[in-house]
Amino acid sequence: MSDTKQMQAQRVYKSIIKMLDERDWKYERHDEDLLIKSGIKGEDLPIEFILFVDAERELVRLLSKLPFAIPENKRVDAAVAVCAANNCMINGCFDFDMNDGDITFRLVSSYKSGSVLSDDLLEYMILVSASTIDKYNDKFFMLGKGMLTAEQFLKQEGN
Questions:
Q1: Rounded CA gap, 87 and 37, in Å?
Q2: How do residues 37-62 score in pLDDT, each as one tens digit?
Q3: Nearest residue to 101 via CA among 143, 59, 55
């Protein structure tokens, strides 16, 4: 990887830290990995996330793994539900791992061509992610517990 990409990634990482500090956000820094761990309290389930600056691909990735796994016997229903949820989204998406039942929300923004992400965009990434996760995590959880069927999920989503 070029020194230029690494220097740009460091600048972006520092701008994320600055934005979080200015908003008195609690977080954990992992400077060597250009990674920040943080979270917020949703309406009921906690929302933990990482912000990762990917120097090679010139991206900021926000990832949030939901705090539960879908049982094996509900994974096909969960896959259908994740597809339906993703179909309604403007920004971000849920990734579903059929092997272990994990659901992760992902939102990515590029900083190619020397651009720097604004504080407002970084804050937007966090807030829209939290809002989207909070909207869906209960539904996915209920689906995994058998309290909601895939058909009911689809009906709620207007599909």
A1: 28
A2: 998 876 677 889 999 999 999 999 99
A3: 143
